[in-house]
Amino acid sequence: MAVAAAVWLLVLTLFSNSKADQAFDVRQHLSSVTRYAAVKDIVDNSFHPSHIPDGCTPIHLNLVARHGTRAPTKKRMRELEKLASHIKELLKDAKEKNLSLQKVPAWLQKWESPWRGKLRGGELDRKGEEELYQLGIRVRERFPDLFNEEFHPDVYPIKATQVPRASASAVAFGMGLFSGNGSLGPGRHQAFSVTSESRASDITLRFFDCCQTYKDFRKEHEPAVDKLKEPIIAEITSALAKRYEFNFTRQDISSLWFLCKQETSLLDITDQACSLFSPTEVALLEWTDDLEVFILKGYGKSLNYRMGVPLLKDVIESMDQAIVAREVNQAPGNYEKARLRFAHAETVVPFSCLLGLFLEGSDFQRIQKEEPLDFPPKPPQKRNWRVSNVAPFAGNNMLVLYSCPVNSAVKYFVRVLHNENPIPMPGCDGTDFCPFETFKERVAQPHLKHDYNTLCQVNLDQPKQKPEPKK
Questions:
Q1: 3-class SS at 124?
Q2: Distances (CA, A) of 193 to 190, 196, 454
Q3: For residue 12, which of 40, 76, 239, 400 sits 20 to 30 Å off, Cα-Cα?
Q4: Of 362, 440, 437, 430, the residue nearest 50 (C-alpha)
């Protein structure tokens, strides 16, 4: 009886593990390399979005979006070529020593980097173009009263960083947003403008690039982050070497994990590099990526997000101006209805932190006091900080300003949408629909009291370098 019970328990365990593996979708666990479509509809079912009161209408929208799915950078493409060379060396060595290669997947034995010999990298992929184009269409359909006018830069200013994948994302979004409203081509497209600030002075969308204090912090802490990740990489390296009877190195495993993410997001291939890892190993590798983003771009240090105060200030000022325009009954077409921005994960992650999103328990009170936070819980524990949700490709935050009837106790509200879904704000008592003055006082003001130049040690007396001519 005892033996039969043990066998039955083993069968049940194997069956439940098999079901869990089948339910595991690697496309949702690629940290910052996750495609938007894989995660945009994942929501916290325990949170119930607010009911917008009758008569409340949106009067202004702020969008802060990351660029869409992109090709790997030149540096990363060289890493994959080195991986291919090292795999060939290992295979040659194994054959010379008459070692069995039966357990080494056939695809790996003849693998070449899909990006071998490519001279350029980092550009927006066609999948990324589609992500932003469709997002533009959905935003217009969701807020028809905000986007019912012809394009004018004073009504719909569109801004992007001076990086081609960001400006291309802005163009793709604009094509979707204004499609059918113009006279160009079969799609009746409308011409629109996208403006960019020089990289050297763009403290609104590339604040991380202009902040010397932050650059020093990253340079100092990157080795420590690598050391935190080492035990996980070492454990998985050992497991894969044993599983496939192949002499993988730690660098091989790091590169194969990167290859897994690139194959999945760009090539829709999940049965090669990703199949080398078990779901448990993928979850741990994802956590190491999330940990790195947490420490170097997120809540790990208040500087990471407080250097984003120029962006938060820009958002607040745009909403204040929209309220003034509403109060004096400015005619349509004479005031701004939406401010649309396109940048990077290094922009979206700090901005999400400024809003207090994806925190655990009482962490909001801790960041208000500038206390350090604990690291995101390690799998299999659940965590709110999952970068695949915080900042996937095309990830975005929308702050929608609502005007409510004059007989309401509060006239103006802000609703926050993350990846198009309402999300609770701890600073607004866990609601997604917050009185504008409360939002300013509790969420924004604790950050806005900080000065960018002071945080970043910008020497205002130093003569500015002559800017390079824009291309």
A1: strand
A2: 10, 10, 33
A3: 239
A4: 430
Q: Are 400 and 377 in contact (CB under 8 A)?
A: no
DSSP 8-state secondary structure symbol assigned to residue 189: B
Cα 328 from Cα 338, distance rounded (Å): 18
Q: Tell me how far apart the terminal alpha carbons of the chain are, to the nearest angstrom.
A: 79
d(CA 331, CA 338): 16
Which residues lie below 8 Å from residue 27, measured CB to CB, with a gap of 6+?
A: 34, 35, 38, 264, 265, 270
Strand 158-160, strand 396-403: pairing: unpaired
Task: Give phi and psi for 175, each to the nearest 5.
Answer: -65, -40
The size of the chain, in residues, is 471
Paired tokens of 280: 């448990």
Residue 322 CA to residue 294 CA, distance in Å, equals: 34
Q: What are all long-range contacts of 169-172, with beta carbons under 8 Å and residues at least 24 apart? A: 169/65, 169/66, 169/67, 169/68, 169/124, 169/128, 169/129, 169/132, 169/342, 169/394, 170/132, 170/194, 170/340, 170/342, 172/68, 172/124, 172/128, 172/129, 172/130, 172/131, 172/132, 172/133, 172/136
Is residue 439 within 8 Å of residue 304, measured between CB atoms? Answer: no
pLDDT mean values, one per 10 residues, the chain (471 residues): 49 44 87 97 90 95 98 96 97 93 95 94 97 98 94 96 98 95 85 94 97 97 97 98 96 98 97 98 98 97 96 98 94 90 98 95 85 92 97 98 87 97 95 96 94 85 48 44
Question: Cα(461)–Cα(129) distance, rounded to whole angstroms?
Answer: 42
The residues, ordered by sequence, that sit 6+ positions from 406 with a Cβ below 8 Å of its Cβ are: none
- The pTM (predicted TM-score) of the whole model is 0.91
The CA distance from 248 to 276, in Å, is: 12
